[in-house]
Write a structure and sequence with these properties.
With 436 residues, the protein is an alpha/beta fold. The protein has helices spanning 19-34, 57-75, 87-99, 112-118, 157-161, 169-181, 199-202, 207-214, 236-243, 260-265, 272-285, 304-317, 344-367, and strands at residues 10-15, 38-41, 47-52, 81-86, 105-106, 139-143, 145-146, 165-166, 186-190, 222-225, 247-252, 290-297, 321-326, 373-382, 385-390, 400-404, 415-423, 427-433. It has a six-stranded parallel beta sheet with strand order 6-9-10-11-12-13. A five-stranded parallel beta sheet has the order 2-1-3-4-5, sandwiched between helices. Strands 14-15-16-18-17 form a five-stranded mixed beta barrel.
Length: 436
């Protein structure tokens, strides 16, 4: 009698999109590991879980192409099963089921227990903060809330992630302690909207309170804030930044535009005057703060005058870090009812003009750093360089500090002091120093 040999599945989790998706993949992998499943991240495996992004056109296209690639591998017998989860699947499940039926199952953003069941695992409620981190060993993302209550006209996130739901402070402290115990030294706080944190649980904005608890965690040396919404920003956070050395003098605050007319159409709840007043408060209260922002050009109704106002404002504000995106016309958003009336080539020209301007600003600001000393963390070794960051830089999006690895030896994941010797628009070159 022939017996069928039971092959042990190896589950490969593929992550697309933003840091929130990275976090979700890590939680999924932690659950699978707790169920004694063999799990890898973006390596070879016979069962594939694709965590998709559905935010804007480019991201959706990448997600669809990745699904098609693994469906082809399934047809070729290279993989046995393909599961799809995440934002694209949440937003377009019926369409995907129809267009790409060869996927074994589609899951939305809130269906982790069902996804685990399909993978032969049980959802373990007791695993607070248990996850398999996929980032370098020295930093990790800490998602402090899910979803968003903001009504921004261009954004599909509430469709995919639901309303804002804060994670209790005590759970986040437990998670931070576990990360610190595993060697993590930097926490990057993420949410769709950090500004709103705590309103649902504590009836007040509690980001400052959370920070004061997180700084007590032994082993954590840097805490960084990502994705703070400008409207209703809790200014007590700036006091914590000044008082607590562990809280980086850094904030990522997507401002999107400066034209009051467009901000109103975007439903951002702010104006030209209010935005500038907030930035003035930032600069006055925390003079050494680095501000990262993102802008959208080509939004419906953006005139040449609106764009020139934005461009002149970028010149005046001299943001340390800035990204610029072209508007993406997303169905089921409020702005989808407006005419997408700025031609694609004009959108691209405007984005390129802003980024060229920012590149010059960044170069000028970096020249001022030559001769200065900074404490950096070493993220990795690449070619002949150790690559590190100052507290004013987030991984993957900001400046990097390069140290010649042919003449100096540094340990990855460790902090060290350096002196800047040269500077380009987005890279700094440095020599290690011994700090007295």
């Amino acid at each position: 009698m022939r017996t069928k040999t039971l092959k042990k599945n190896k589950i490969n989790v593929v992550t697309l999109g933003c840091s929130k998706n990275v976090y979700d993949s890590e939680v999924l992998m932690g659950q699978l590991r707790a169920n004694n499943k063999e799990v890898v991240h973006e390596e070879e495996g016979n069962v594939v879980v694709i965590n998709t992004c559905g935010f804007i056109a480019n991201a959706k296209e990448e997600s669809v192409n990745t699904i098609l690639e693994y469906v082809q591998k399934k047809e070729d017998g290279i993989v046995d099963k393909v599961f799809v989860t995440g934002c694209l699947s949440e937003r377009y499940k019926p369409d995907l089921q129809k267009e790409i039926p060869n996927v074994d199952q589609y899951f939305g953003t809130t269906e982790l227990p069902a996804l685990l069941k399909a993978l032969g695992a049980d959802y373990k409620h007791e695993l607070i903060g248990e996850r398999l981190t996929t980032t370098p060993k020295n930093y990790a993302y800490l998602k402090i809330a899910e979803g968003c209550d903001r009504p921004c006209s261009f954004c599909a996130i509430p469709l995919m992630r639901g309303g804002h739901k804060s994670t209790p402070i005590e759970n986040l402290v437990i998670e931070a302690e576990k990360l610190a115990a595993s060697g993590i030294k930097e926490l990057i706080l993420i949410a769709q909207d950090l500004t709103y944190y705590g309103l649902d649980l504590y009836k007040e904005r509690a980001l400052a309170k959370l920070l004061r608890e997180l700084v007590k965690v032994e082993g954590i040396e840097w805490i960084r804030l990502h994705y703070a919404f400008p409207t209703g920003f809790p200014e007590d956070v700036l006091d914590v930044m000044n008082e607590e050395p562990k809280v980086c003098n850094y904030i990522d605050i997507p401002l999107q535009h400066i034209s009051t007319k467009l901000l109103k159409s975007m439903r951002r709840g702010t104006t030209y005057e209010k935005t500038n007043a907030l930035l003035k408060t930032f600069r006055e209260k925390v003079p050494q703060m680095t501000i990262r922002t993102t802008l959208i050009v080509g939004y419906p109704g953006e005139t040449q005058e609106d764009f020139e106002l934005l461009r002149d404002w970028v010149k005046e504000m001299r943001f340390e870090r800035l990204g610029c995106f072209t508007y993406s016309h997303e169905e089921n958003t409020h702005a989808y009812n407006l005419e997408d009336d700025v031609p694609e080539e004009v959108k691209m020209e405007r984005a390129n003009e802003i980024m060229a301007l920012q590149s010059q600003i960044s170069w000028e600001l970096n020249q001022q750093k030559i001769g200065q000393e900074f404490r950096i963390v070493v993220d990795r070794k690449e070619g002949n360089y150790f690559v590190g960051r100052t507290e004013f830089d987030s991984p993957d999006v900001d400046n990097e500090v390069l140290i010649d690895a042919t003449t100096h030896y540094l340990k990855t994941g460790e902090f060290t002091w350096v002196k800047i010797t040269e500077a380009e628009d987005f890279d700094l070159y440095a020599e290690p120093i011994v700090k007295q």
